[in-house]
Amino acid sequence: MEREYPDRPLVAVGVVVQRKGEVLIVKRGKQPSKGLWSIPGGAVELGETVEEAAFREVREECGVDIRVEGVLQVVDAIRRGDDGRVRYHYTLVEVAAIYRGGELCAGSDALAARWVRPEELEAFEMPDLTRKVIRWAVRGRGRAGLAHFPPSYLDDRKEQMGGADGVESGHTRRRK
After folding, report:
1. Which H or E run includes 53?
2. Sequence spans of domains, the chain
3. Does the domain formed by 10-160 have CATH 3.30.70.990?
4. What pLDDT, in 10s, does the model give residues 27-65?
5. pLDDT tens, 67-121?
6. Using CB atoms within 10 A of its CB, is residue 38 exposed (0-12), middle (13-18) or buried (19+)?
7. 135 vs 46, 55, 138, 140, 164, CA distance in Å?
8. What residues form DSSP beta bridges with 139?
9. Contacts for 55 with CB less than 8 Å, ≥ 6 apart
């Protein structure tokens, strides 16, 4: 399906990764939002869970591994072209994650990646919605409402996939 001028919304993930009082941000290398700072994320691939997409996108864009904690919220990002038609429409599943390891480096469609303290966000050009999602996650709002991925979900998922989906220590990973 085309990302620009789609015939229906695309499902994507946005990942608020936290590490010792800092959050991970990336500078977008592709549209939409090319050149702006954001959280890592991207489109969910066919047959991929939200958790798998979050893990994959963060690894591809930043080179680090994460543990997905759960869903923060779901938002729609809709941008119209000059003619009024919908140019981009993403239904974004925003998830909270914790840094697990790896060396930070910009990869795939990220021009840059860095750790920042939440109070430094104003210095970066980013969509207001992104800044709000980060602050919401950092302040722990809705923690009681997080849709957690329990260990039993991972076990069930592994069983569904015949043990071949790459389930390892609290996160799922797609094998290439």
Report:
1. helix 50-62
2. 10-160
3. no
4. 988 877 789 999 999 999 999 999 999 999 999 999 999
5. 999 999 998 989 899 999 999 999 999 999 999 999 999 987 889 999 999 999 9
6. buried
7. 30, 21, 5, 9, 37
8. none
9. 65, 66, 68, 171, 172, 173, 174
